[in-house]
Every structure is written in C-alpha cells, then in structure tokens.
Amino acid sequence: MSPVNDLPATPDTDDGALLSVRGIDVGYRTGRKSHVIAAHEVSFDLHPGQSMALVGESGCGKTTLGLGLLRLLPRTGVIPRGQILFRRKDGVRVDVRTLEKEELRRFRWNEAAMVFQGAMNAFNPVLRVQDHFLDTFRAHENGRRRSRKEILEHSAELLEMVRLDPARVLTAFPHELSGGMRQRSLIALALALKPQLLILDEPTTALDLLTQRSIVERLTELREQLSFSMLFITHDLGLAAELADRVGTMYAGRLIETGTTRDIFHRARHPYTSALIDSVLPVVGDLRVPTPLPGGPPGLHTLPEGCPFAPRCAHALTDCATTRPALDVLTPRDRGLSHTAACLRSTDSELHAEGAPR
User: Fold this and answer.
1) What is the mean pLDDT of residues 126-151?
2) Which of 12, 149, 154, 334 sits at a 20 to 30 Å CA gap from 47?
3) pLDDT tens digits for 250-289?
C-alpha cells in the first residue's frame, strides 16, 4: 500500500484531515465505452471527530458518492478520476482509489465502515447475527486472529453499546428482529474494528419517530465515546441539523454548497439549499406554510449547459443558463469548515438575510 505524497492543495485541505476528497467522479457504465457520472467533481475534507451530512433530493448522487468512497459500487460502477485521500491509523495517507484488492479488504472496516440503507437488505437472511460478526472479524481484522469465544464476547459488548440484549440478538436471524434492532445491530457491526470513519446511508429511514430518536441519541453518544468521524447521507434536514458539524448540499451530482450547520440553516447561500429548507414544515418558532420546490432535477444524461438548478430557480440570471459556477469559498475557516457555494448570486445581499433562521 503506497503512501501519497506531494499532493496538490485544495482550499479546505490541510495536513490534519482524515479524509480529503479531491475532484472525484463516480458513475456507472452504460456500454462498453460510455458511462454516466452520478457524482461529478466532488471535493471536501473531513477531519478527525467531525460529522458531515450530505443532503439533497433523491437521485442527486449522495449514495453513489458514499459507496464510491469505500469502493463498494456494483460491478458497473466506475471512478474515472479524482483522489480519495485517507489518513490511516498509522498516520500514512493513502489514495483509496488506487488500493489493490487485498489492501482494500484490509482498509474496509478497520479504517472506514458503512451502515447501509435498509438494514434487512444489508444482512444475509440465512445467517444469524453472530455469524455476521464472526465473518467481519475474520475477513477484515489485521494481524490478529481471535478465537470464536473472543469474537462473540466482543460482539456482545458492541451490542450492549447500542443498547441491545446480546443473549437475544446474537443467536437471532435478521428477520426475527425489529427494524430498530436491525439498524442498531448494523451500527454495532460497523464499529466492530474501531474504524476512524463511519459512513451512514439514511440511518433512520422507515423507522418510527421514537426509534429514530433513540438511534440519533446513541450515535451522538458513541461518536463522543469512540471519537470517530461520521459522514451521513440523508434527506432528513432535521437529522442533519442535529447530528452534523458540517452540511453539504448536492444537486444533479454536484456539491453546490458546504458550510457549518449554522451556515447552512441560518445563512444559506445557494437558492437550492434555501428551497430545501423552506420546503420543510418547521417544528419550532412561528408556523408557516412550507413552500414546495417546483419541477424535478434534470436527468444526468441531459444536464443543462449552465447551472443545473437554473430551470427551477426563481432567482436565476440570464448568465445562469450558460455559466456553470464553481464552488467558491465565501467564508474561509480552518479544519474544512469554510462556507462555500456554487452560485452566481451567492453574495447577493438581497437574497440572503444574515443571521435569521429560515
């Protein structure tokens, strides 16, 4: 596994970043010589202990990007360009995109793990929960071979951490558990080898409100206890506001705004981010009627020449139809927390009220 040295800098990158994604394209082959790009020119940094949420409508490329970061794409998946730079536990920085098969196997679950959307589909239905733990330790643990007894004892501790009864859960098949129990079991499995990064894809989808609350609270406690970084993919803006230090908005495969949670929810600088927030019914403060976002996102095969959001944007300029804006740094900060936006009107004071919650 070769370390990465002398890499080009990006506005938010410094030597302390755990994960630096630089100009990554992720897509799917549609023929022998063609492919469609679902996540295009994505760049961001994630530092140790930080939590970042990726938000946006369905089909914007969030899940594809998450899978691409660990190279868990299906066979048709491709990563034609870019770098996925990760600082391992030994301090060496590697490009995940270039890892060979055995190196990649040792990287997954030791350094970075993923909690997939739909826990029932993530488990093998014919294996008991304890078998999933045994397989994970044996396949991914580096340099140590634990006995079955040791693995099961540690698995029991992990299940207790997510407030499950090991005596009941370990010997159960996935279908014998409730949705919330399966989701928490999957989180315990992802944390088995103490990864530095946990990627969560819609971790509370299809769960009732009380179960969602329980999982959110436990994730917050576990992050403080185990000091891992989180990248979670969600369409739930309330979840993003509660769990994330930083939020990134994706649209048509592109990252179009990033910032601290306060930046995004109080001082959004891209009309699409503002529209997402305005489309959600507030649960505190003055009640207002949510404003639905008109139209739908463009097909990835037929992206417009200029800003992909321009056809739906109430504030679009004439130049928006022909100019695709870059992700510009609006407020420089350390540790990847700069506020950035890809909009020709990102600094227009008439569109953005400073300090006022939306």
Assistant:
1) 89
2) 154
3) 999 999 999 999 999 999 999 999 999 988 776 565 666 7
Going from N- to C-terminal start, the domains of the chain cover: 1-101+233-358
CB distance 40 to 25 below 8 Å:
yes
Determine the Cα–Cα distance for residues 227 and 350; give it in Å rounded to an integer. Answer: 41
Q: Is 246 helix (H, G, I), strand (E, B) or coil?
A: strand
Ranges of beta strands (E only) in the chain are 19-29, 35-46, 51-55, 77-87, 93-95, 112-115, 197-201, 229-233, 246-251, 254-260, 328-331, 339-341
Residues contacting residue 268 through CB under 8 Å, at least 6 positions apart = 257, 274, 277, 352, 358
Instruction: Taking the CA atoms of 152, 192, 227 and 161 in sequence, report the sign of the dihedral they define.
Output: negative
- Alpha carbon dihedral 213, 218, 221, 222, in 10-degree steps, equals -150
- Of 11, 21, 36, 35, the C-alpha closest to 199 is 21
Cα distances from 291 to residues 313, 315, 316, in angstroms, run 13, 15, 18
Q: 1-101+233-358 maps to which CATH number?
A: 3.40.50.300
